[in-house]
Amino acid sequence: MATWSNFNLQNSNSPLMEQIIFFHDHTLIILIMITILVGYLMLSLFFNKFINRFLLEEQMIELIWTILPAITLIFIALPSLRLLYLLDDINNPLITIKSIGHQWYWSYEYSDLKNISFDSYMIPSNELNLNNFRLLEVDNRIILPIKTQIRIMITSSDVIHSWTIPSLGVKMDANPGRLNQTNFFINRPGLYYGQCSEICGANHSFMPIVIESILMKNFIEWINNY
Question: Would you call 178 exposed, middle or buried from its count of C-beta atoms within 10 A (0-12, 13-18, 19+)?
Fold first, then answer.
């Protein structure tokens, strides 16, 4: 989860988020190179005394400053397209869960696992324990196993919501009357926090998402004991 004065991306906990961070760093390096080059050229133009009274046209420099930006865009576009296809690929999920957005809480259904279903509400500030996070803790967490391909089906019962877990690289809109799907793979056990990232009404800030990832044997015990 995000912490104070952290301007970087959150640590990745899934292969997809790792790829998103790699692409972010790759694009940032290209932007820094462009910024340095353009800044250097502008400064040199400001401060040099070079004058050419007979320069009217120059096809070669026109060709260069047309082709170089095109090549630069290709270096950004190809990894971007690869990442888009990776994010959309549903790779033989072992578990499917369904998330339904409401004003202002989430409902979850494990349809292929004993038809488990529950609502997940934010815990009010006056009921928090000392080790809980304000505005992020819920009364019913999503329990999921690690090292497992998971598909989540997302919809809404009223207005547009958005199911977002930054450290897993997951963001999918919940639209009424439409069923969206995405997938993720959790690398390690832990708690992963997220929030609705579509403006969905007065209490938009108060419908957090919490995933608790555990070992597969513990997940099977949780299913059996539910």
Answer: exposed
